[in-house]
Write a structure and sequence with these properties.
- The chain is an alpha+beta fold.
- It folds into three domains: 3-287, no CATH class; 294-415, no CATH class; 424-489.
- The protein has 15 helices and 13 strands.
- A hairpin with a 4-residue loop joins strand 6 (128-131) and strand 7 (136-139).
- Helix 9 (375-386) packs antiparallel against helix 10 (392-405) and helix 10 (392-405) crosses helix 11 (409-415).
- The chain is elongated.
- The structure holds adenosine-5'-diphosphate, zinc ion (ZN) and magnesium ion.
- The site of adenosine-5'-diphosphate has 15 residues, from strand 1, strand 8 and strand 9.
Amino acid sequence: MYQSFIGLEVHIHLVSKTKVFCGCRAAFGDEPNTNVCPVCMGYPGVLPSLNIESMRMGCIVAKSLNCRIPEKTWFERKQYFYPDMPKNYQISQFTSPLGQEGCLDIEGKGIKKRVRIKECHLEEDAGKMIHTGTASLLDYNRAGVSLLEIVTEPDMETGEEAELFIQQLRRMVRYLGVCDGNMEEGSLRADANVSINLPGRGLGRKVEIKNLNSSRFVRLGLNYEIRRQGALLDAGKTVAQETRLWNQNRDQTEQMRTKENAHDYRYFPEPDLPVFTPDTAFLKSVDDALVELPVPRMRRFEREYALTGEQADLLCDEKALADYFEEAVGEAEKRSMTKQDGAARIANWLLTDIKHILAREGIEISAIGSFKLTPRRLASVVALAAQGQVSMKNAKQALETAILEDRDPQTLIKERGWEQLTDPVKIAEAVQSVYAAEAGTFAQIRTAIAGGNRKRQQTLTAYLVGKVLALTGGRADPKIAGAQIEALIKQ
Ligand code: ADP
Ligand code: ZN
Ligand code: MG
């Protein structure tokens, strides 16, 4: 067996409003070549200037990945020619990237591992080439958009680990609000490097799989490569150092270009941009933007709220949902529920009924913060249901109506008479009507009891309770109704 080594280079689009070195709008889907100016089009003699927001977002990610932010960070020109890059060089970082030597602990699906981060560097994206049948078209709207590249050390060993790394990183940058993480649209894409070798021999000769736009393709591509390279070595051949692409139609990697010699990009310091020296105010603004990250938050949810790992995972998928949950639990505690009881009930509502309603209405979970059903409103209904003042069915109806009509669910419950009916006299009226209409069923229950058929007795009794509930619009307290029916049976 061979040892395998995987290192990832992940590119994320930062959500800054303007491009990284000019004032052009950084937006997608606009009319081609409308967000361009002499700077990002590479006209001679123009001067780039650094977008400080992009630098800040880059540093926020770097810090969250436990990287060191150097005292001085600067930019280099990386020279190469490609039609989608009008300047014929890319402004990037080489000798002193904004984030250095960090790590990310990946955890879950039976994996627990520390992946070292080599660096995070800020650079500009290239334009987009669109190939038609006869010509290639160029859209430079994306040229100059802020890109952060995160480079890991070759610490991962399987496609599954790399997939988990990408998923965890994606959640993290979404939590930090610096990238939308949309992989299909290319906001987060990865190049995956992989080599294999005999155990103890260190790194092998690496193959790079470029431009992976789904974490699943990262896993599939890497596992395919590990097998392919293993078969080559088994056959006494060597692995060629090359760049490959994942072909999702054939489920295999295919050669894109050979890479005998590393590119000579002739990096040199960008003469038109000053060295960036983060001052205390800048560093403080970075620290102020740090948030509790998804994995530690999940662990805390399990401990503090006694949730299962799966519940914690689902609730922490989106920061907005996790925030909403915690606020709702706080509101439940104000309504004299214990933290863990409130948490269990609220988690249940959020992950089942409310999730279904949102999915059906096409409301994004991430929009839950601006949601009509505020955490306070949700907690008020959950508390009523817990105290038996409203049935589960009517609680659900109240929440649904509250979402659709933007109303206070507690008011709705009062207005529409959805409160639980607990008055024994009122319930007795309904029970008497059922007794009159279902005399046969009562007789059958008595026969069942006499014959010792408990199962049949229970089924039929439940049927009668159901009748009472139907008569009272689902409002009768089923416990009281059940007790009254039992009493009638024994008569
Ligand atoms: P390059 O100069 O070809 O871009 P780098 O040293 O910058 O190579 O590394 C790029 C990525 O490839 C990093 O994520 C690194 O961890 C990974 N990598 C480097 N060498 C190997 C190897 N032999 N096997 C697997 N991954 C590697
Ligand atoms: Zn521009
Ligand atoms: Mg490199």
